[in-house]
Structures are given as C-alpha cells and as structure tokens.
Amino acid sequence: MPCILDAWLAGKCTPGAAGLAETVRTEQLARLRAQLAYARGRSRFYRDRLKNFSAKGFSWNDLPALPFTTARDILDWKSFLCVSQGSVERVVTLESSGTSGPEKRLAFSAADLAATKEFFRVGMGQLVQKGDRGLALWPGAQRPHGVSALLREALVEEKVTVFMGEPLADTENLRREIIRYNPHVIIAAPRQLAVLVALLSGKEPLDVDQLALRGILASAESLPSKLARMLQNRYGLLVLDHYGMTETGYGGGVECPAHDGYHLRELDIFVEIVAIESGQPLPEGQAGEIVITTLTREAMPLIRYRTGDVASLLPGPCRCGSPLRRLSPIKGRIVHEGATYRIATITKGSFRERSVHASL
C-alpha cells in the first residue's frame, strides 16, 4: 500500500491526467518559481544573490546555475527575512560549527509552523489512531512553538494526546512514565530508545505484551539499524525513522512501513544531492551533500541551502508502491578541516537548538 503521504501530496496538486510523480514535479516547479520571485522581492540577501535570475520561465535545467546558500550566510539572518519581525512567530538559534561570529538563526512565521504541523499530522498517521496516547521524549516541552509543542498541537485534530516525558530519563524514570501514561507510540531520539531497550530487556523488564505500545518514531539522530531491528523483531514494534533539521522546518522526510527510504515533504522542500567538492548535481543512487530549497517558506526562504548532511536519492519506486523520490538513510555529516573534510556520524541533531525571543 503506497505511503499515506502520497494521497496528501496528490490532494495539494492540480488534478490532471499525468501520473503522481509528474504531477508533483509540475507543482514543485510552479512553487519554486513563486518562491524565487518572493525571495528576490522581499529578502535583502536574495535581492542581490538572485538579481541575474528571473523566476518567469525558470526551468529545472536552470536550477544548478543558482548560487548555493550556506550556514555562514545565515549568520546574518535578518537579511533573509521576507516579513516584518512582528510577523515572526519563532526564532531558533543553532550552534554554528566551523563558523565564527554570532550563532546562526532561523525564523518562522505562523504559516511556516502550520505547514510543519500538517506534515507531522500526516506522517504520524502511519503510527497513531484517533484516541491514542503518545509519549514524546524530545526536550523543550514547554518551549512555545518548539518541536515537541508542534507535534502535540499537530495531533490534537486526530484526538491523540501527547504527553511529554523526561528527555534525559534513565530506565527507572522511563519505567514510571510508561506505566503512568501507557502510550501507544513513543517519539524519541535513538539514544533514548536505547534506554527503552534496556528497560524491556533488563533484570525486571516491562512486558511489552501487557502495554498499549505498538509504534515508535525515531528522530534527531542517526538510527542504528541494529537498534531498529531489535525493537521491531524482538518486541513487535513498528519503528519509523524521520529526517529533518531546523532548516527544513523540522520535518523533512519520514519512512513508511516498507522501510525503503524517507518519503519527502516534496511540496514544501525540494531536495538535491550534489558532489561535496564540486557542487555538481549527482544522479539517483550516488551519495553526496543534501541541498534543500524551500518552496513555501514565508518568513525566511532558503534557496539551495547546503545542509552538510550526506545521503543519496533512491532510484525506483518504494517497496510500498509509491512512485515518488525517497531519501536514503543519512550517511553522516560533513566536517570541514582546512582544505579537506571528513564524514562524521550525526549524534546530536535538533537537540542542539534553542529558542530566542522573536524580537531579538
């Protein structure tokens, strides 16, 4: 059965005779042209950066000619803003590894956050049913518009209650929370899921057959395949991995039960894979740096933003039957060391971020 994101994406496109992949591609190009015109007209940074490019008549063949945006560029985040600061709902500060000066910041409008919540709602529909309970172990539960709060708000419409657990919980704290809330789904980072495994396999293990627990969403760090297999095969839990970063508006892509790559948020973000050194686009199946272009971002669009993450676009349809592109598991993060670089394992993900007041 195709991933439920396919029906969601199809519902956002103009109906036509073309297949889903072609229909989505056509809609993406229309949104890309609109985003380029919007960014050039409202952002001080892109007014200069895109001055030699016209959104009218822009084609996919023109995309590689657009200049990249880097983490160093967004240190001057206010030059990217396309709305007044009064229209900014949330600003997030991120560590700027490898850069000097102030930390980089990302701004989001109410519409940007609403789009994220919609993606969370659809993606989580693979794991939850109306009336379910979720236990989120991500940090920042009380942070307005934080990722945990957005997830909780996204599922209100589905009448799913998301309780916030202790992010640094040890086995005994997690035991108390699971017994207290008896969640159907746990949302956590892999290092937190390792604590869950210890709880399920320890000297006084919880009996998963006596719990409501049936599914897990993993995010924020690379999910070891051994850990995922153990939770699925030994305990019968459906484990879906999620890829996203603050720059993608948190949500980027999520697995389906076929476990054949991340199904992408195709109408909000366009993903390219480029060669790390040359920046040239790579064909499906070849690993390189993930580059994203936002297609609907209101507060702070990003055009061909080099994420520093390494992956590939997977060829062929998903095992679930979806004809749309998928992203491979993340192979690591690029760490530049002078004239060379290395690929490091992602270990912290979105746990690095912190919020600041929108007026800063």
Summarize the structure in words:
- The protein has 360 residues and is of the alpha+beta class.
- It contains eight helices and 17 strands.
- The chain has helices spanning 4-10, 20-42, 44-49, 110-124, 147-154, 171-181, 190-201, 225-234, and strands at 88-94, 104-109, 133-136, 161-164, 185-188, 215-218, 238-243, 253-254, 262-264, 269-274, 288-294, 305-311, 313-314, 326-327, 332-337, 340-344, 354-356.
- The strands form three sheets. The protein has a nine-stranded mixed beta sheet, with helices on both faces. Strands 10-11-12-15-16 form a five-stranded antiparallel beta sheet. Strands 2-1-17 form a three-stranded antiparallel beta sheet.
- Helix 5 links the parallel strand 3 and strand 4 (161-164).
- It is globular and about 65 Å long.
- Residues 348-360 have low confidence and may be disordered.
Task: Produce the secondary structure layout.
Elements: H1 4-10, H2 20-42, H3 44-49, E1 88-94, E2 104-109, H4 110-124, E3 133-136, H5 147-154, E4 161-164, H6 171-181, E5 185-188, H7 190-201, E6 215-218, H8 225-234, E7 238-243, E8 253-254, E9 262-264, E10 269-274, E11 288-294, E12 305-311, E13 313-314, E14 326-327, E15 332-337, E16 340-344, E17 354-356
Parallel strand pairs: 3-4, 3-5, 5-6, 6-7
Antiparallel strand pairs: 1-2, 1-17, 7-8, 8-9, 9-14, 10-11, 11-12, 12-15, 13-14, 15-16
Keyphrases for this structure?
5-stranded antiparallel β-sheet; 17 strands; alpha+beta; globular; disordered C terminus; 360 residues; 9-stranded mixed β-sheet; 22% strand
